[in-house]
Design goal:
Elements: H1 3-17, E1 24-30, E2 33-38, H2 44-56, E3 80-83, H3 94-102, E4 119-120, E5 127-129
Antiparallel strand pairs: 1-2, 3-5, 4-5
Length: 130
């Protein structure tokens, strides 16, 4: 059994003993530290538990263990083909888009970093670009 597999087993036993459902799937070193893949998204408590375990390993210096963090990404989405002037005669607003997005199951796990921008596709068009 490799060293990484031993650590996975020990982390998972620790998580199981304190009655957490999250489990480590694999561990590998990476340029910014240690990458740990889990079966679900860890919360702050889960991250703190894993950090305490990593700091307890003799071969790992405490100074090498930084605060754990979850990777984050920002993506951009361009939506076209939505009428700029709504059936009620009002212009489409970013609040209209935000409200709609919050009610769509597709966007449930998405957090908007900023308000959507609504731009009219051209001066003679009734199509918006979000």
């Amino acid at each position: 059994m490799g060293e990484a597999n031993i650590h996975i087993f020990q982390i998972n036993m620790l998580l199981k003993n304190i009655k957490l459902v999250i489990r480590a799937k694999f561990i590998c070193p990476c340029p910014r530290g240690v990458f740990i893949n889990t079966n679900s998204i860890p919360n702050t408590s889960d991250l703190n538990t894993i950090e305490r375990y990593l700091k307890s390993i003799d071969s790992t210096g405490n100074d090498k263990i930084l605060t754990p963090w979850l990777p984050q990404s920002k993506s951009y989405l361009k939506i076209t083909g939505i009428p700029y002037i709504q059936p009620n005669g009002n212009k489409l607003t970013s609040d209209d888009i935000t409200t709609t997005i919050k009610h769509l199951e597709l966007f449930e796990p998405v957090n908007l970093a900023a308000k959507p921008r609504v731009i009219k596709a051209s001066s003679k068009s009734n199509i918006a670009i979000i």
